[in-house]
Amino acid sequence: MNTPPPLLTLRGITKSFPGVLANDRVDLDVHRGEVHAIVGENGAGKSTLMKILYGFHRPDAGEIELDGRPIRLDTPHAARRCGIGMVFQELVQVPALTVVENIALFLPDLPVVVDGAAIATRIRETAERYGLAVPPAAPLWQLSVGEQQRVEIVKLLLADARILILDEPTRSLAPHEVDGLFRIFANLRRDGYAIVFIAHKLREVLACADRVTVLRRGVVAGSLRRDEATAAMLVSLMFGALVAEPVPRATTTARPGTAPILQLERVSVPPLGHGPGLAEIDLAIRPHEILGVAGVAGNGQRELGDVILGLEPCRRGTKFLGGEDATRWPVAKMRAHGVVFIPEDARRLAAVGGLTVLENLALGDTRRYARAGGFAIDWDAARADLDRALERLGVSIASPDRPIDALSGGNVQRVILARELARDPRLIVAFYPMRGLDVRSAMAARALLLRARDAGAGVLLISEDLDELFALSDRLIVLFRGRIVGSGVPAPPGGRPGELALDEVGYLMTGAERRARG
Amino acid sequence: MADASLLRDSRLDALGRLAAPLGRFAALLTIALALFAAVLVLFGRNPLRAYADIFSSTLGSAYGVSETLVKMTPLILTALAAAVPSRIWLINVGGEGQLFVGALCATWAAIHLDGLPSFLLLTIMAALGFLGGGLWAAIAGGLRAGGWVSETISTLLMNYVAILLVNFLVFGPWKDPDGVNYPQTVEFAAGAILPMLGGTRVHLGLVFALVATIVCAFLLARTRWGLEVRAIGGNAEAARRNGIPIERYVLVTMLIGGGLAGLAGMAEVSAIQGRLRPSLSPGYGYSGFLISWMAGGHPAGIVAAAFVLAVITAGGDILQMTQALPGSVVNILMAVVLFVVLARQAGRP
To answer: Which chain B residue lies closest to A362 (C-alpha atoms)?
Structure first.
């Protein structure tokens, strides 16, 4: 087959950071009208490669060509002039400004006097063409994550980007939003745009990519056309000879009638900031039980987790931990009583950047490692615990004495996961715990959650990944606008009363009144 | 030095740890001196002569060195007063007021408990000085911890309150009846005067300052509380979710910081002034804040920067004599140093 020359060519890209070779002689071709997925384990160098493409990092060696001409991408500005745009994992917008204003800020040809109506028209035209529904007049903070992402894409298109780079675009999206994003990819491909995106879920990659490049420890392990690729091949490229373990199946071991570890009775929290708050939440988590919380992000999940952890006071209602009234307990007391927390963004919510990996481990329970009444810290004990915890998760961290900043996002998540699960918890509050983990780490993390459950812990698993919720949960609740709108045992479609089927949860999550069965 | 530098990170190479802040410090100082040289040239003076005068008068003789050490003592303590809270991003500009309240509390003991043995009396004075300055700062800490008032504003305003409080006492109830109407208290008894070291005006306060620096460095680098403080400083949200009581640390770091400034006040009033006067401090609290920022909160850097500022302060008097410049010209040099430091802070990523 006679393929046209690639739009963008990377040859021999090498980038090292102190102690890490993040990219080692990476070659990559991106064609017009191609959806190109980059996959790989955490720390495989995906984000580094994308940041080189966007001019954030300067490669130590290697060449980049656009349309056959060598280019230098020393700054994001240079990349934008070359028609390369990037959508970040953490969206970079001004919440108080409207969609139009946010987009106008980014336009290269913005005149001194901003003609909002004209820009709105351009936005609407572009949005219609590619199925990117965005409300131009709405302030950014009112938009869902999916809408904000679409705004970012529109912004890049209006700024004449031809190559769009997306760093884990499906990470924060609900299932139907993911499908929508892939339809947008297809529309863009039709018009010759090239799309490069990082992904972790192979199912998604196989659903929408034309080509998949696998990075492994900074090296290109393989680059496959869609028709050549299978999930098994990709997994073996990502992890070498590793044979995928079957995902552990959930089996209910909770005995009905046992006293719950955690009980919330009519707990309400007023809406704060942009959140919906919580209204009259009743729930109980028993030992040996994983309670899944389904819902689109921003429907009270954060508040639910914060109330349980003691970060946010209950306006009304009562919280019991192990039968004791814990309504007013501070975080430290909840943690001392065996409540642990796995956040969705470990870098921001659990790890302290300037401290070393080891110091971060000790922070999980400083009292445990304190000696001489607090005047000394038993680093040997902390080191032993860290090694043991990481071993249980099946990962190794090169140097525990390096600042945790130096680790990739996925590795930070692993360290925090290891730290929290090593504390023999009674109750685990897990926010999207597998987010940002590669296939192997996610599998290990699931196994650990199940093992903790089998050892008698209760788990509150907050997730948007319905497959994960259905695979792990013993019971499910669905949150919508701060209320529990459905609960039951996860089951195949058409189950008995008291059971929840996947499609039904999907409807409940989006607030649809229609129920799958009468 | 190595011990003191543990504050930043206990596990990096010791030399490398010292090299970066000291290099930065030397660069800042050079820029400031060059700018001040330009000012001197504008006045028609020879800057090289002026700098030579400053250095020979302060470092060229045993007396000069001892006077520099005398000036360094309160500067180190007030710098720590700003540096300790700064580890959790608190801005304590109240070192001056905390110093005055510390001096006031120590004076109360010196006047009212003068019958006690010297060792006991000095211990009580030091304890009261620390507590006075500490509680004064803790008021601002409490207002901040509750989320009511920014500690930057409250510590600044409380400086005026503290100074006026001292004025009220020395003009009123505590005024020395034999003082020919000078606003000052009676002279302290010999037992209330800190011992001097080696026949100079250098006093035990210098030991307080150096010990305090090492203790602070040790607490931050090696202990559980230090780890928790560094965690709050590194990522307050994560610290809160790990169950670290941030409000308590706001109070405690302010208390310790204010206490150290109070200790500086106690040492000044006891060893240097021998009585409480409104002219107790030529702005040591503000200079200390400047030193802390210059040193980036680094203990070895604080000692070094306090030394430099002590030289500048002591040298100011010399400029007045040898160059026929107004004594306040040294304030220009201080201001230039401050500008350079602030410019660096703003330029930091």
So the answer is: B227
- Rounded Cα–Cα distance for residues A368 and A363 (Å): 10
Nearest to A518 by CA among A483, A494, A502: A494
Which phi and psi (to 5°) does residue A287 adopt? -60, 155
pLDDT at residue A155, rounded to an integer: 87
User: How many Å apart are CA A517 and CA B177, to the nearest integer?
Assistant: 96
Residue A40 structure tokens: 């790989």
Nearest to A254 by CA among A489, A495, A458: A458
Same domain flag for A71 and A212 = yes
User: What domains are there in chain B, each with its CATH number?
Assistant: 20-33+66-342 (1.10.3470)
Distance from the Cα of A140 to chain B's closest Cα (Å) equals 24
Task: Determine the structural domain holding residue A231 and report its residue range.
Answer: 1-81+163-168+194-240
Chain B stretch 216-235, residues whose beta carbon is closer than 8 A to a beta carbon of chain A: 222-225, 227-228, 230-231, 233-235
Q: For residue A252, is pLDDT > 70?
A: no
A83-113: string of b/e by CB count within 10 Å (b at 16+)? bbbbbbbebebeeeebbbbbbbebeeeeeee
Residues B62-109 have pLDDT tens digits of 888 998 999 999 999 999 999 999 999 999 999 999 999 999 999 999
Q: SS3 for B88?
A: coil
Q: Rounded distance, CA A201 to CA A170, Å?
A: 9
Of the candidates A22, A10, A93, which has an alpha carbon nearest to the alpha carbon of residue A54? A10
CA distance B177 to chain A (A): 49
Q: What is the pLDDT of residue B90?
A: 93
**Residues with Cβ < 8 Å from B99, sequence gap 6 or more?**
B74, B78, B133, B261, B262, B264, B265, B268, B280, B281, B284, B285
Put simply, the answer to whether A350 touches B241 (Cβ < 8 Å) is yes
Question: Which is higher by pLDDT, A437 or B293?
Answer: B293
A206 lies in the same domain as A331: no
Q: Which of residues 80-139 of B touch A (CB under 8 A)?
A: none
The CA distance from A414 to A396, in Å, is 10
Give the residue on A whose Cα is nearest the Cα of B228: A363
Domain count of the fold of chain A? 3
* CATH code for position A310: 3.40.50.300
Query: How many residues are recorded in chain B?
Result: 349
Q: What is the pLDDT of residue A246?
A: 46
Same domain, A451 and A464: yes
Does residue A72 sit in the same domain as residue A94? no
Q: What is the DSSP string of A31-97?
A: -TT-EEEEEE-TTSSHHHHHHHHTTSS--SEEEEEETTEEE---SHHHHHHTTEEEE-SS----TTS
CB contact at 8 A, B162 and B101: yes
Asked if pLDDT for residue A244 goes beyond 70, the answer is no
Token pair of A400, please? 């525990």
Q: Which two tokens stand for residue A505?
A: 């949860």
d(CA A248, CA A236): 19
Domain edge (last residue) among A161, A177, A212 = A161
Which residues lie across from A98 on neighbouring strands? Answer: A139
Q: What pLDDT score was predicted for residue B228?
A: 92
Give which of B297, B309, B283 is closest to B345, Cα–Cα: B297
Kindly list the residues from chain B whose CB atom is less than 8 angstroms away from the CB atom of residue A383: none
* Percent share of chain A, pLDDT over 70: 89
Q: Minimal Cα–Cα distance from A388 to chain B, Å? A: 21
Residues of B within 8 A of A374 (CB-CB) are 223-225
Give the whole-angstrom CA distance, residue A504 versus residue B290. 63
The answer to whether A382 touches A362, Cβ cutoff 8 Å, is yes
* pTM, 2 dp: 0.75
A75 and A93 part of one domain:
no
d(CA A311, CA B236): 13
